[in-house]
Amino acid sequence: MATTTARRTGAWTPWLYLAPALLLLGGLLVYPVYQLGLISFLEYTQAQVSGGEPTTFQGLGNYATLFADEQFWQVLLATLLFAAACVVSTLAVGCALAVLLTRVRALPRLALMLAALGAWATPAVTGSTVWMFLFDPDFGPVNRVFGLGDFSWTYGRYSAFALVLLEVVWCSFPFVMVTVYAGIRAVPAEVVEAAALDGASQWRIWRSVLAPMLRPILLVATVQSVIWDFKVFTQIYVMTNGGGIAGQNLVLNVYAYQKAFASSQYSLGSAIGVVMLLILLAVTLGYLRILRRRGEEL
């Protein structure tokens, strides 16, 4: 009897240690999400905020309005494609540099690590402003070096998205690089040496040896990149001046900001936020489910 009681008490011990963190997360995450969902079901504009009109329950009316808006679907498609390009590019650059770190001497490795950590630590507004200067059509060194004259990178839709993608990758790849590099260092050197002795190229070693052993780490890096890149806001807002000419470079986060604060349609902005949350949950859970079906450890 005493043993059973002790086991039950011991089962609750981890939760007691986690209780302060769970309470903090509940206050910082659960309550705002609840408020976001609540506002998305109400008519909540500047008139309701100022108290001029009462708040009324709209049910799914805000979502019906949102889904009937053709611009929403265009922005959603652009967001999905842009986020996918950012995730793939970030993972490719981060993994390539992680492998490079294992091949260079200590001094170049230290220099690369410091440069990458500097990019990672740079605030998004500062990084975006620096990249805008580098690609400025009048004073930017990039146009001068490549002889592009007064070509404006932010005028065209695709060139503006490409410029933002480069900045997003620049400030995101250090996380992937450091994480994957730490994972590679944990792989036994004998395994890599055996593959090299068998005549495997560097690409074959990565694909057939390192990548399978680093799947849990790559899972974390991929999920984090999906979350970060899907909800990009600062880079788009700063570098395209709020979404580009006639909104050609809008993504969902900027679109939600415009609806909520520029147009004072807070309920529509909240509905967009809920849609983004559901998409991220679906993508993350779907990815985890695919890995579990393949028998991967999570």
What report would you give on this structure?
α1 (2-40) crosses α14 (266-293), α4 packs parallel to α8 and α11 packs antiparallel against α14 (266-293). The chain is mainly α and 298 residues long. A two-stranded antiparallel sheet has the order 1-2. The model has no long low-confidence stretch (mean pLDDT 87). It is built from 14 helices and 2 strands; from the N terminus they run αβαβαααααααααααα.
Quickly describe the structure.
This protein has helices at about 1-40, 45-50, 60-65, 70-100, 105-120, 125-135, 140-145, 155-185, 190-195, 200-215, 215-230, 235-240, 250-260, 265-295; strands spanning about 40-45, 55.
The average pLDDT value, as a whole number, equals 87
The total of helices stands at: 14
Main-sheet strand order equals 1-2
| Helical fraction | over 70%
Order of helical and strand elements: HEHEHHHHHHHHHHHH
The quaternary organization reads as: single chain
Give the low-confidence spans: none
Q: Give me the count of strands.
A: 2
How far apart lie the N and C ends? 36 Å
Main sheet summary: 2 strands, antiparallel
How would the global form be characterised? globular
- Decide which structural class fits the backbone: mainly alpha
Radius of gyration: 24 Å
Per-chain topology:
Elements: H1 2-40, E1 42-43, H2 46-49, E2 56-57, H3 61-67, H4 70-101, H5 106-121, H6 124-134, H7 141-146, H8 157-186, H9 189-197, H10 202-213, H11 215-230, H12 234-239, H13 252-262, H14 266-293
Antiparallel strand pairs: 1-2
Helix pairs in contact: 1-14, 3-14, 4-8, 4-11, 5-8, 6-8, 8-11, 9-10, 11-14, 13-14
